[in-house]
Amino acid sequence: MARRKTVFFVLALLLLLSPLVLTACNRTPASAGSPNKTATTAPTGTPPSQAVPPKSPSSQSATKQVDLTLYFPTPNAAGLAPFRRQANVTDGAVIQAIFAELQNPPSGWPGPLPSGTKLLGASVKNGVATIDLSPEFRSNFKGGSSGELATIYSIVDSLTSLPDVKSVQFLLNGQKQDAILSQLDTTQPLKFSKSVLKS
């Protein structure tokens, strides 16, 4: 009788433990089953620290050296004299480069542009260079007919030395003027003038 009780007890114990044993057997390690949903995958591609930064607009600009012929008033007011210079021109802005150079006359020579003059805009169409000058071009002009010729034709003769410029139309703050400085008619484009050159 004691033996039957022992067998019965063992069977009962096995029945109770069998669900636990089966559950443990059915479990699989995370690495062998479905991927762990909380795991993160390393991103592909170039790491941010090694990414190539985009080029800035300034680094994409094309700069080249250009030969210019500039005309400056002589110290004795005898007329204009030509000077050859090389200038760095960015994105084809050669007219802007000429204006920058005209504000840097040879040592001991007068500057042709009235102080404070700014080039507000420039374009070339059908051989005509249209330049828009700031109000200082007129307000700071010191006067005199010879000074007017020297100032105007320093610009005109310098710009018409460019192969695609045949004449120059002056604007003051976006507007045509009968005489942008004093007496010289500037309603129409002006062409290169040999008469103002130093004889």
UniProtKB/TrEMBL annotation:
Keyword field contains Lipid metabolism: no
Region (Disordered): 28-63
Compositional bias per record (Polar residues), positions renumbered to this chain: 28-37
Keywords: Signal
Organism: Acididesulfobacillus acetoxydans
Keyword Signal: yes
Species classification: Bacteria, Bacillati, Bacillota, Clostridia, Eubacteriales
InterPro entries membership: GerMN (IPR019606)
SMART domains: Germane
Signal peptide start and end residues: 1-23
Protein name: Sporulation and spore germination
Compositional bias annotation for Low complexity: 38-48
Domain GerMN intervals: 95-181
TM helices/strands, residue ranges: none
Recorded superkingdom: Bacteria
Pfam families assigned to the protein according to its UniProt record, in alphabetical order: Germane
